[in-house]
């Protein structure tokens, strides 16, 4: 008699989402045709099916968007009473909540992420960011005591494909709260939630030109960075592109914040509650298919509990459900693009070639779409590429340590410095570790926990500047003497 109980399919209905056949660029409060005349197709990575035709903004389009943002900045938005600005942000937050299911389904369709995550994490957190910064809009002088904050001007914002709506909220909410206007470029592969967001802006009656959304590939981003009338660039993405942007802006006087990659250590001590830690390890690396800049991609386990942790981890991995992002039982969805799948596959092969031991649970993948089985490597040396480079996929490398000092040495042995996790029952040890870890965020007995009130950002090659919290306002204000 079979004892295996399978899940019945639990698909989320997708008819709540009306995707247009083609989209223009959202400039000056309305959709306009791209002057470039160029378009590309955005797809559903789980089915490799086209979803819509997207405009590729060229140089003249970028210029048009920046001019609309400048005009809105000079003629109304920057001089608006802060409590009025707050009202728009509150409206946007409430509209995101009201339309949350629509956004969640669209995000899962275009990005490949499980509906459970887009529904319970991405969309609620995006709304929470707008609520949070709405609260700051008329209290900026309390955020910066004894200084007189004023807006920076026109901000150019470039975001990646791993959290399309959430990254948009992280960028737009503080910029508007501080009185700036925005030109935002979503990632090439995931423009649809940003385009739906334009409808929210119209519903909220945000004045035209305050937020402009221009779609396109890296060329559009580069044009936005180079535009002479942009006062500040906020970028989240790869370290390589971040460095290129920094070079481009050197000497221009434009402000810059960079939120780049990571190779975080998730450190488990022998006194940690192991079952809870294993949940944290799984959440740390398999959440959002591992497409997370702060993913806990290096697991550091104290030697005495190594075998127990790895055994529990493998058992837990075998229960992960990989497949249709729109199925409410899915834990791990589709890889965002063919290009990213190729990158993950190549890095995993390098791990095998260099001598690490690979484990992948038995797992039936859908025939179409881009998929990667949750993977763990043991027997990993610190010098291996899988322990050094950001894989940005569901791939974990396990290393061991004996003493807290060794854990810190190994955790900090990376060019990155975005995040870390510590699992132990001793509060004093948590504080001691957090002091010594060169990471912008250190989670204790949890992982991948986000809150709009908490600043996020990195050291070293993970970038500079903070998003979230009061710190997240700083890049968007000029502080004059009071
Ligand atoms: P990119 O850094 O290329 O993309 C981030 C954003 O920058 C996208 O909107 C992109 O547009 C845009 N962009 C690309 N080139 C330029 C340029 N020259 N000037 C200005 N903007 C530009 O990341 P990828 O999507 O190529 O991913 C590559 C790797 O980067 C991943 O495998 C992962 O390791 C890492 N990554 C890290 C992220 C993080 O949050 N830290 C997020 C995303 C990726 P377009 O989408 O059209 O390329």
What share of residues are in beta strands? 15-25%
Indicate the percent of residues in helices: 25-40%
Strand line-up across the major sheet: 13-14-15-12-11-16-17
What structural class do helix, strand and pairing data support? alpha/beta
**Total strands:** 19
What is the CA–CA distance across the termini?
78 Å
Q: Main sheet, how many strands, which sense, barrel?
A: 7 strands, mixed
Ligands and ions found: NADPH dihydro-nicotinamide-adenine-dinucleotide phosphate
Rg computed from alpha carbons, rounded to a whole number of angstroms: 22 Å
Uncertain residue ranges: none
Mean pLDDT: 97
Topology record:
Layout (H helix, E strand, L loop, with lengths): L24 E3 L2 E3 L6 E6 L4 E7 L3 H19 L4 H17 L1 H12 L3 H22 L3 H4 L3 E5 L2 E5 L5 H14 L3 E5 L6 H12 L7 E3 L4 H9 L5 E5 L2 H11 L5 E5 L5 E4 L5 H13 L11 E5 L3 H12 L20 H17 L2 E3 L15 E4 L6 H4 L6 E7 L2 H9 L6 E5 L3 H10 L4 E4 L18 E2 L12 E5 L1
Parallel strand pairs: 6-7, 6-9, 7-8, 9-10, 11-12, 11-16, 12-15, 14-15, 16-17
Antiparallel strand pairs: 1-2, 3-4, 5-19, 10-18, 13-14
The structure holds NADPH dihydro-nicotinamide-adenine-dinucleotide phosphate.
NADPH dihydro-nicotinamide-adenine-dinucleotide phosphate binds next to helix 8, helix 9 and helix 12.
């Amino acid at each position: 008699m079979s004892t295996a109980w399978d899940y019945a399919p639990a698909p989320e209905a997708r008819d709540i989402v009306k995707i247009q056949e083609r989209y223009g660029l959202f400039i000056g409060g309305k959709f306009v045709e791209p002057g470039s005349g160029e378009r590309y197709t955005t797809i559903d990575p789980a089915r490799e099916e086209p979803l819509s035709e997207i405009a590729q903004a060229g140089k003249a389009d970028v210029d048009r968007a920046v001019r609309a943002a400048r005009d809105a900045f000079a003629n109304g938005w920057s001089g608006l009473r802060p409590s009025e600005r707050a009202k728009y942000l509150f409206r946007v937050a409430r509209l995101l909540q009201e339309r949350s299911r629509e956004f969640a389904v669209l995000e899962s369709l275009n990005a490949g992420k499980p509906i459970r995550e887009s529904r319970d994490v991405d969309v609620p957190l995006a709304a929470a960011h707008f609520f949070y910064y709405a609260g700051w809009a008329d209290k900026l002088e309390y955020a910066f005591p004894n200084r007189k904050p004023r807006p920076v001007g026109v901000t150019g914002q470039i975001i990646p494909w791993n959290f399309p709506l959430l990254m948009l909220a992280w960028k737009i909410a503080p910029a508007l709260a501080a009185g700036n206007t925005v030109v935002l470029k979503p990632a090439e592969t995931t423009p649809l939630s940003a385009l739906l967001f334009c409808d929210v802006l119209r519903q909220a009656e945000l004045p035209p030109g305050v937020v402009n959304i221009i779609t396109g590939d890296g060329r559009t981003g580069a044009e936005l960075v180079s535009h002479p009338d942009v006062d500040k660039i906020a970028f989240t993405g790869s370290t390589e592109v971040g460095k290129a942007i920094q070079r481009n802006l050197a000497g221009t006087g434009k402000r810059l914040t960079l939120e780049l990659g990571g190779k975080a250590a998730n450190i488990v001590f022998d006194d940690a509650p192991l079952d809870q830690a294993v949940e944290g390890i799984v959440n740390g690396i398999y959440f959002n298919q591992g497409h997370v800049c702060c993913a806990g991609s290096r697991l550091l386990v104290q030697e005495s509990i190594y075998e127990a942790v790895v055994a529990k981890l493998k058992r837990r991995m075998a229960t992960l459900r990989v497949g249709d992002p729109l199925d409410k039982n899915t834990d791990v969805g589709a890889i965002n693009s063919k290009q990213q799948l190729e990158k993950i596959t190549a890095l995993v092969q390098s791990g095998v070639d260099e001598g690490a031991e690979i484990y992948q649970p038995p797992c039936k993948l859908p025939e179409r779409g881009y998929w990667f089985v949750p993977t763990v490597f043991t027997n990993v040396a610190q010098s291996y590429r899988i322990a050094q480079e950001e894989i940005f996929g569901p791939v974990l490398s396990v290393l061991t340590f004996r003493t807290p000092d060794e854990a810190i040495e190994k955790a900090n042995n990376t060019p990155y410095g975005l995040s870390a996790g510590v699992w132990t029952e001793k509060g004093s040890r948590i504080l001691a570790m957090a002091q010594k870890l060169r990471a912008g965020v250190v989670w204790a007995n949890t992982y991948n926990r986000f809150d709009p009130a908490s600043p996020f950002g990195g050291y070293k090659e993970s970038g500079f500047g903070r998003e979230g919290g009061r710190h997240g306002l700083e890049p968007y204000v000029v502080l004059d003497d009071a």
